[in-house]
Amino acid sequence: LHLSIRRQRQMCIRDRDYELLGRSLNDYLIEKHRKKLIPLFDQIKGIALNNGALGCSISGSGPSVFALTKGIEKANEINLLVSDLYKTSGYDFSTYVSKISENGVRTLSI
User: Fold this and answer.
1) List of residues 6+ apart from 61 with CB closer than 8 A
2) How far apart are alpha carbons 45 and 41 in whole angstroms?
3) For residue 20, is pLDDT > 80?
4) Dihedral of the alpha carbons of 59, 64, 65, 71, in degrees to the nearest 10
C-alpha cells in the first residue's frame, strides 16, 4: 500500500494533477492517532489548507508536518502564518521552505 501511494504521488507530480496530489496526502488511517503527539496539528493543517496549500500531512511518523503548495510565494505565506501561531503558543519550533527537486533521487557521491 505504501509503495502504491508513493507511486501515485510521483505520477501526480509528473502529470501536474495537483488536485489528486493534495487528496493523496490525506492519511485517514494513521493521522488521527499521530496528530495527538503534534501540538497544534489541527490548527496548522487548517491554516495550510485555508490559505491555498494543496495538502498538509505528517512526515513519516512525526513530529514533522509538511504542506505542499504551487509556488514559493504561497509556501512563504503559509510559513509566516504557521510561525505566528507557534510564536504565541510557547512551543519550540522551526520551519523550512523548499521546492521539490526537479532532478529526483540521485547519487551525489560515493
Assistant:
1) 34
2) 6
3) no
4) -90
Q: What is the pLDDT of residue 5?
A: 65
CA 23/CA 104 separation, integer angstroms: 22
Residue type, 35: K
* 0.85 exceeded by pTM: no
Return all residues near 17 (Cβ < 8 A) that are at least 6 apart.
11
Could you check whether the bond before residue 63 is cis, i.e. omega within 30 degrees of 0?
A: yes
Strand partners, 67: 56
Structural contact between residues 53 and 77, judged by C-beta atoms closer than 8 angstroms: no
